[in-house]
Specification:
Order of helices and strands: HHHHHHHHHHHHHH
Number of helices: 14
Shape: globular
Strand content: under 5%
Distance between the termini: 61 Å
Radius of gyration: 23 Å
Helix content: over 70%
Length: 305
């Protein structure tokens, strides 16, 4: 009745499930060599791809501002756009550096833009902002328009902190990347048990209860099994985070409207989002039905011939 704790669910869905996937693959090490050479990378290497990087970054920002999308979608769209305008589209996927630049720029453009729906609407843009949203809720802070009014100083502190972190990450990576790469030389039989132990200890430390440990293990199995059947675990995570907020807002709205559901259809903003919800369900079903119908007609034509 109290809901599922966010931290054990996160550890299970993304950490323990990944350990199970890697264990199934049976890899001896994470990398073949783990070698990092001394070859440099300067702005001169970026200049030939400047148009692709700018366009793909813009695509990443637009996709990142849409809740629940993530970097994989922006990378896919950025590469498709770069291939569309390329003079040699067949070389994409075969080592064309323009495709690599498009994919990475789209992914990186999404990273900052996912904060837009999280900070303004309280809806996480991807997994990372979902974790950040959970951290804010644990501290008693409700992301949304009121956060900017009631805790404006904190919001700008977070923004400045992100800028400083990126600067610090540059110098840390520059100095320690070769040492970080050596973790790929640790045998999986040693590394994975250590990671699993840290996950279970973290789940237990959340509320000093074995219940959280069992929650983490349960969601680890769920996160391992669902992708095998084509289901993503991200909607589940968003449901765990937004579920309590939806229940609270639903009760508050029904109290204001004397238990009338018309309040969700009389306001333009709520009506707009309800229409989007209906379209997001109906349009994919219609496309699936249309594709099956076209496939059926093509197979019928082929048989008749």
């Amino acid at each position: 009745m109290a809901g599922v704790s966010l931290i054990p669910a996160l550890l299970g869905l993304f950490a323990i499930s990944e350990i199970l996937k890697q264990t199934q693959q049976g890899t001896g090490k994470l990398s073949v060599t783990g070698k990092v050479d001394d070859q440099g990378f300067t702005w001169r290497n970026v200049i030939p791809f400047r148009k692709t990087i700018l366009k793909s970054s813009l695509i990443g920002v637009i996709i990142g501002a849409i809740p629940g999308t993530g970097g994989s979608i922006s990378s896919f769209l950025a590469v498709n756009e770069a291939r569309r305008v390329s003079k040699d589209p067949d070389s994409y996927g075969k080592g064309n550096l323009d495709g690599v630049a498009a994919s990475e720029a789209g992914n990186n453009g999404t990273t900052g833009a996912t904060l837009i729906p999280m900070m303004t609407l309280g809806i996480p843009g991807d997994v990372v902002t979902a974790v950040l949203l959970g951290a804010l809720l644990i501290q008693g802070l409700q992301p949304g328009p009121q956060l900017f009014q009631n805790h404006g100083g904190l919001v700008y502190t977070i923004m400045i902190g992100f800028i400083l972190v990126n600067i610090i990450m540059f110098f840390v990576a520059k100095l320690a990347i070769k040492q970080f790469a050596k973790i790929s030389q640790v045998p999986a039989t040693v590394l994975f048990p250590i990671v699993l132990m840290c996950c279970l200890v973290g789940a237990y430390a959340y509320d000093n209860s074995m219940r959280s440990v069992w929650f983490a293990l349960f969601f680890g199995i769920v996160g391992y099994v669902l992708p095998k059947f084509g289901y993503s675990v991200i909607p589940m995570l968003i449901g765990i985070i937004l579920g309590p907020l939806a229940e609270t807002s639903l009760r508050r709205s029904l109290v204001l409207s004397n238990e009338s559901l018309l309040i969700f259809f009389q306001r333009p903003i709520s009506l707009f989002f309800i229409i989007l919800i209906v379209l997001s369900i109906v349009v994919p079903l219609f496309k699936k039905y249309r594709d099956k119908r076209v496939e059926r007609e093509q197979s019928t034509t082929t048989i008749s011939k």
